[in-house]
Amino acid sequence: MAWRCLRAATGRRGWWDASPWGTPLFAAEQRATLVNVKLKWVKDRALDAAVSRERNLRTAHHLLDLVFSRPGHRVSRSDLLAERSVQRLCGSAYSALEFLGRYHTRFALSRGGVSLTRAALDLRQREVECLCAIEHDLVARLRRLLMLTLPRSLPLHTIDLLRWDLGLPSDYQVSILRRCPQHFALEQPEGDERVWLRLLSWDDLLAVSELEKSADGGDTTCLPFLVSFTRGFGLRSKCLDWLREWQALPYTSPYADASGLDRRTYVSEKRNVGVFHELLHLTVAKRTEHQNVSNMRKLLGMPQKFTKVFERHPGIFYLSRVLGTQTVVLREAYGGGCQLLEKHAHPLAAIREEYSILLRAALPPRTRRRKRHEAFGKQDEGSVVGGDKFELSE
Q1: Which parts of the sequence are annotated with region: Disordered (predicted)?
Q2: Is 222 in contact with 249 (CB distance < 8 Å)?
């Protein structure tokens, strides 16, 4: 382990050891300010392909959900186009009808209205059965999300933004919240127009991070993160030493009280990385849009410029810029490829992949070939699929 090497090299106790006076010896190191590390972002084609596979998937799934919820799984065009959410997603009635007609493998248009194809209906029924089977897991994920926040609560609007990533059904307020009154409560604080979801019960068994679970019962004092770089990429010795020392610092659980940490230190930075590492693990695809985590800054107890951790640690996170937005991806979950590793796979992820295949089947053959070429084309010389080439300077 890196911290053992450092201990042997320096001939002194680790930063995580307690002094005779009961004060952590790493307290002195906490006073040191962070090194200003600048990173050059470089495109990762494999992870961009993983994000691109969900192009139009959320919009199509929302429309499917609306049609499926109506009697007989059929809705008139006027009723569907009158939905505010449809207008917001598609922009206009014409765009919505064009979208429905384009993906004929999922939607069937007729004079009577809009219905689902047999393939889409069968897949949707499988998804409903899957949601029922993993309801306990969804409740646990939502509880852990609230446990990450300082007030143990979040505005419903924030949860709605994360709903797709967490795998929650569209009717989660009825199907999950109302059925778990022992865990959740809805409240509206005085002077606040928003409705908040508050956690009622803390569970120490849930307050164990994925990084701590990976230790498999071993020492969790100074856990290192799994970091991967481009094959053949060489960090300068000074930067490599910095990374090793940073990995050897004490690990603070994202569920623990971190009010005593100095935000200007490496120990605090490692805690911030740990929070987002855990947050991404709670998602189905191990990724979420950048704006979703930005909305939670204060509630997670993050500093003003907390998103720099994504730029300072590209071996842990990748910022994808496809689909007109920034998406934060947990690199370790993909293992250098564009598919989730089996150990990180979620039952809903497999169903969503089938939805994506159903959408792509409606595209013209030439378009499908072009998308496959863009997703799996040859990498630039010196790079590998899933790798990330960047420059590091101080």
Answers
A1: 368-394
A2: yes
What integer pLDDT is reported at residue 385 of this predicted model? 32
- Give the residue ranges of the chain where pLDDT is below 50: 1-32, 232, 373-394
DSSP 288-327: EEHHHHHTTTTTTT--TTTTHHHHH-TTTEEEE--TTS-E
Position 35 scores a pLDDT of 65
Per-residue model confidence as pLDDT tens digits over 206-250: 999 999 999 887 788 899 999 886 554 556 666 778 888 999 999
Which ranges constitute the DSSP H helices of 11-106? Answer: 27-30, 45-52, 57-68, 77-81, 84-90, 93-102
pTM over 0.90: no
Helix H or strand E segment including 153: strand 153-155
Backbone angles phi, psi at 10, to 5 degrees: -90, -20
Q: Residue 154 — φ and ψ, nearest 5°?
A: -145, 150
- Residue at 100: amino acid letter: L
The helix (H) or strand (E) run that includes residue 244 is: helix 237-247
- Between β-strands 327-330 and 287-289, what pairing exists: parallel, antiparallel or unpaired? antiparallel
**Does residue 386 contact residue 47 with C-beta atoms inside 8 Å?**
yes
